[in-house]
Design goal:
Two copies of one chain form a homodimer. Chain A has nine helices and no strands. The longest helix of chain A has 27 residues. Chain A is an all-alpha fold and 191 residues long. The first copy, chain A, has one domain: Tetracycline Repressor, domain 2 (Orthogonal Bundle). The interface between A and B is large, with 52 and 52 residues. Chain A binds a DNA duplex (18 and 18 nucleotides) through helix 3.
Amino acid sequence: MRSRTDTRSKIVELAQQLLLERGYNGFSYQDISKPLGVKNAAIHYHFPTKEDLGVALINEFREILHTRTTDFMQSGGNPVNQLEGYIGFILDSFKRDKTICPMGILAVDLFTLPEKMQIHAQLLVNEMIRWLTRVLDAGRDAGLFFFNGPAVDKAVAVKSVLQGAAQLARLNGAGILDNAVVQLRRDLGRA
Amino acid sequence: MRSRTDTRSKIVELAQQLLLERGYNGFSYQDISKPLGVKNAAIHYHFPTKEDLGVALINEFREILHTRTTDFMQSGGNPVNQLEGYIGFILDSFKRDKTICPMGILAVDLFTLPEKMQIHAQLLVNEMIRWLTRVLDAGRDAGLFFFNGPAVDKAVAVKSVLQGAAQLARLNGAGILDNAVVQLRRDLGRA
DNA sequence: GTCTATAACGTGATAGAC
DNA sequence: GTCTATCACGTTATAGAC
């Protein structure tokens, strides 16, 4: 029993995979329509332009972030659990199919992206940093993390390590990402 | 007085800028030939396929890395100077024209790249990690850096921070990169 | 909501003249 | 070493039938 937007959600799901795997300029409407067994025009019905599709994908990432960070909050509210939940999500995603963080992908492609996508990508990054800053700040106050300087600086550093290491792991093997995570924990005084 | 490969080197120079700015799938032969005032066929003469051009670009990055790390070595051989030289290079590049590290770009585009490019990209990353590991290890032995765990783990973490933070800075402003660098120094016990 | 058909253009690439 | 000319194909996108 398929809802009336079944195709639409299948398009979003596949396009998301393709964006994460190949970047915004690395996939086409054909790459979506062929596996789904529909025609290009069907995709244009749901997303008139590729920009519309791109914006929908970024908003999907923002929703995932919101859902998962809310999850982390609820599961104890412990800052360690929250950070480790995010780290686990990144490790699992990479190990499944070498998925890397969408923010790095959007940053690399940024100057080729339609304007609306650029704006929504900025929102995504801001939301991520805001959440991670809160987690680290609360964890330091509770004596669970140890670091100097403003929490927002540490948040950017932590996010950057995870993002960058997953990228390097594509080129050098998954072990490099595991080791970077271990080092990250050491640098938070947790090892 | 132009050498017989003047056009060739101009192609490489411009293509490098384009790759760093837009990713491998974000520029075309036209983007190179038009500004240079030559025809597409002229580029195909020097680089029969885009793969050939791409490999040449990666090898250029490898040469730059080799030249600059040799520089750092010679200018005192001090591990702090070596690391700070690399950091300064990244900061300057970003502030000039929002240039980010080619390794992140190649990682994002990896599964769309011709085979030879993928292989050369792996070499580039391996060489980078090897150099940075040596610098950090020597610095720790000399009591200049402070960190726990294998130097190679810290090298990956340091490289990842710089790479990831420059990407986030494209979306959030240059300040975020500066702050990540400050945090990086703190986490090396240097602030 | 999906289709066929088509438009308008950009892409990487090649042959052969100069 | 660079040109003109051309190719075959893929791209995003639209109009209109069903």
